Amino acid sequence: MLDIKKDAYAEKPHRGGNSQGVDGHRGSGKRYFGRGGVRFALLKLLEGEPMHGYQMMKALEEQSGGLYAPSAGSIYPALQMLVKSGFVVVKEEEGGKKVYKITEQGRSALILLPDGSRRAAAGDVRHSPQAAAFLNERIRRTLGLSNESFDLLRLVTRAEHEAIASKELSAKLRQLLHKQKQLIIQFLVGH
């Protein structure tokens, strides 16, 4: 069985430019994914739909806001390990393209993984403080928000994640958000 916690193929963060570190990877030399993160992220992508390797590379880059630019040298060996472990099957299409699909065993692995491995997936990565600040600033600018608006958006997102486990908290949050929505509508109408 695949030990999803050990991943020798973890990629480095992409910081732009053509600079390469001592080990030949772009960026600062810090890993974007923790151990097992690349394989977990690939399984999460395949949970949604079967994909080509290149599609997965692009999806991971998009989900990271451009911070992580995976290489074929990290993705394809990880996919081979997932196939060998029975978590993924591969089918060759006309033209030689390979399509990867998660198996039931792969779906089970996603459910059984410890919480620390789940955080290593794209979209739920614990960045270094510098990488998190860079990513947040990039997202804020892309959305065209002020710092205050972006901070509010992050707080609302966090509150929704915490309230999901409780009907009582969820109801309180809905009330709070409804009140704030009404205040913002009044502001827009009244200016």
TrEMBL record:
Signal peptide as annotated in the record: none
Entry-linked Pfam families: PadR
Name the record gives this protein: PadR family transcriptional regulator
Stretches assigned to the Transcription regulator PadR N-terminal domain: 42-110
Taxonomic classification: Bacteria, Bacillati, Bacillota, Bacilli, Bacillales
Region (Disordered): 1-28
Biased composition (Basic and acidic residues): 1-14
